[in-house]
Predict the 3D structure of the following.
Amino acid sequence: MTARAVDELIARNYILEENPDVVVDIIDASNIERNLYLAMLLMELEVQIVIVLNMMDVAKNKGYKIDVDKLSSLLGVQVIPSIAIKKVGMEDLKDAILEALEREKKRHRHTVLSYGEDIEKLIIKVTNIIEKDPRLIELYPPRWLAVRLLEGDEDALEKIKDNPNKEELLKVI
């Protein structure tokens, strides 16, 4: 999550610093494209995530057909359709949260999103430099930090200000 607003920074820092067991991302199914961007950013934080597609009735009324199983498969996370106002999907959500907790206990491998070959090469270069600093990799997921640095995220740049490999990182970035 690139912190461009105070609320985004607070949410991102909470997830990074408090390391919650599971993050539930509630997406407006009638505006899915815009909302999936946040889901992608959350997955980069390497947290267990459950996505709730809320307002499925509104999406259906707009003529949207969402293949929930395929979306879940593509993202590598549980996707639960719901209509919260009618309490539809709440039991499935509870089950998905429990399953996510079990995956965490088993150290489930996190989904890696690809940005294409050229960007991935840069991400790998930056990640390799980040991984030279044990303090950074203890505090932040290396790939997440690499992506944020490549985006020019000011808060991420602040996180490397005292890094002994700062000049090498800036050169690659």
